[in-house]
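Quick one: structure for this chain?
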Amino acid sequence: MPAKYQLEIITPERTVFSGEVESVIVPTPDGYLSIQKMHEPMVCALSIGPLRLNIDGEWRECSVTEGFVEVRPDETLIFAQAAEWPEEIDMLRAKEAKERAEARLRERKSYQEYMQNQIALARAMVRLRVGRKKQNID
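Got it. Here's what it folds into:
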């Protein structure tokens, strides 16, 4: 039986998850990071993407946005601007957000607006990806 440790996923609005997990895979600017019990302590940035939890041998996925991860030997804390489980994602709203971001990117505004729209597009894309898996949509 794999070793378990405490994981908390926290956003400004709520605690999304608090419980024991066997492992977690988080999106970072350098790629995906797998964390198990007794991982070397560290703090790293959290990127927009799917976050995967292994709970009692079952994988569960949620959508997260930027933030940071604090890893301790027997506990991991994930602080994200937003996090959603697949059943919480409004697929129509996510699709509309994706379309708006794509349209704004085509307008060729300032660099700052371009970057904001890239982030909005990334958020919408990950929400659609995570939501589709739960709803078995291709």
